[in-house]
Every structure is written in structure tokens, then in C-alpha cells.
């Protein structure tokens, strides 16, 4: 399998309270956040992920060894401020938030260090996944434009799983595949995307930047896929009991792993949809067994609807 660089600027320390089957409380510590979940699923599918982001403060001191335990390489920039963290209570069976502590925006030198580390890694791996910062305004669109432009100019395939305005910046730099949900797409075009013509027009706004493939996830509805002159629907098996946390990120991680291994976008998205479904059946967090994912992929339907 291939190598994948993942820009996941703000890994988080997850503290989760669970109920043990005997009724006792359990407290779990995990690395979390979009980039972490993309990296974990990419590794589950056999890729070698390189995770680029920030670590700092008391939470960073705890988070660092947890990331080291993941099946990925880390390129972390030391931050002058604490890494973000959250506490959730799942004893009721739902995710009840108790507390969130987020990182402030990085300084100029910290941004330059992250850009350099990410671009240097991307030029080695030849495939780059761009993930959002957390909170969203912690990195501006100009940072994503710089990274995408420098990587794309050297032939690196760039995948974006971003919301606006970060997506706008990345598109100016150069992106090959965009995965976005329907409400993020509505934010990108600042208008409705519920009707077929509205969706197609919004995707056209993305593809005018030279994007080859656009994937729109739509909750319970099949995903809409636009590739070349063709339009497809992507339908994964749906389940009633599970956790949505990290499903979209699992899809992106698996998609990146298959593309890095030389698969085409149809195979990559089919495996990606299966990975999202398997993640749902787990506790979320970008987890899933490769054999289960490939077996479930036989139940994923990718159907051409136009073109």
C-alpha cells in the first residue's frame, strides 16, 4: 500500500465516560479529531499515514504518546498553547458533551513550520489529504492555498475534506478530489443545494477550479459523485444502531489509502463508503477492520445516473 500525508492541524484529547456491562464507570482517553480519524482508517486499510499538526501544553503531553501508539508517523509542530480536548459522557448511550477546551490560533512561525512540514512530507508520499482546523477559524484559507499550491505544483495528488472558507483557499491552490457534505456545500455557494439542478450548479462551482472528482455526502440519502462527465450515486448499507462520529473521516481515510495504493476513484469510493459504515458499527473514532470493510464493500452500490 502507499503513503499518505494528512494535514490534521488540531488533534484532540478525547476523555469519554462509558458504562461497563457490570454497571461501573469507565474513563477512556483517546486521540481524536478529523486528521486522527482519517489517519487511523487509512492505516487500517494498509497505508502508511504521516499526520501533520500541532501539539502543546499539558494536554499535548498526554496526547503525544497516544498519537505515537497509532499506526501512523507523526510530524507534530510544538505549539506554545495547549492542544484541544473534550469530555463526553456516553453512559446513557448518547454522546452528552460535558466540556470543550479549544486551541487558540497558532502564531506566524508555528504556521510556517506546519506548512513546511506538510509540504515536505507530501512531496515524499505523493498524496495529501487536507482536513479542517478545530476550531474552524484557527487557520485561514491562505494557509490551505499555500499548502495545496506548493504540493500540487510538484505533482502531488491533493484530496480536500474541508468546509469554507478553507475549501476556497485549497481550490485556489489546486485540488484533485473534494469530499464535502451537503450543508458544507450550501455554505460554499451561500445558497440551497437540495434540488438536483442546485446541486449540479454548486458542484460546477467546485469543478471550475480543475477538480476531477467531487463527492457530496447527504446524510441518510445516497452520496452524489461527480467524476469526469459522469454522475453517480453511492449507497452504503445503513444501520440503526451505531455512532456517526468519524464516519465521514473514515470514508476519506479509506479512499486515500486505496488511491495511494494505485486504485481508481470508483474502487476508492466504494471501499470508503464501506469503511464509513463499519466505523458506524464501532464506537466511531475512525475504527474498523480491513476484512470487514472489504466484505461490506460488496454491498455498496455505485450507480451511474448521468453521462
Secondary-structure topology with pairs:
Blueprint: E1 3-7, E2 12-19, E3 25-32, H1 34-44, E4 48-55, H2 57-68, E5 73-78, E6 85-89, E7 96-101, H3 108-125, E8 127-131, H4 141-152, E9 157-161, H5 166-173, E10 177-181, H6 182-189, H7 196-207, E11 213-218, E12 221-227, E13 230-235, H8 247-260, H9 265-281, H10 290-296, E14 301-306
Parallel strand pairs: 1-4, 1-8, 2-6, 4-5, 8-9, 9-10, 10-11
Antiparallel strand pairs: 2-3, 6-7, 11-12, 12-13, 13-14
Helix pairs in contact: 1-8, 3-4, 4-5, 8-9, 9-10
Summarize the structure in words.
The protein is 39% helix and 28% strand. The radius of gyration is 18 Å and the shape is globular. The longest helix is centred in the middle third of the chain and has 18 residues, at 108-125. It has a 10-stranded mixed sheet with strand order 5-4-1-8-9-10-11-12-13-14, with helices on both faces. Strands 3-2-6-7 form a 4-stranded mixed sheet. The model has no long low-confidence stretch (mean pLDDT 94). The chain has helices at 34-44, 57-68, 108-125, 141-152, 166-173, 182-189, 196-207, 247-260, 265-281, 290-296; strands at 3-7, 12-19, 25-32, 48-55, 73-78, 85-89, 96-101, 127-131, 157-161, 177-181, 213-218, 221-227, 230-235, 301-306.
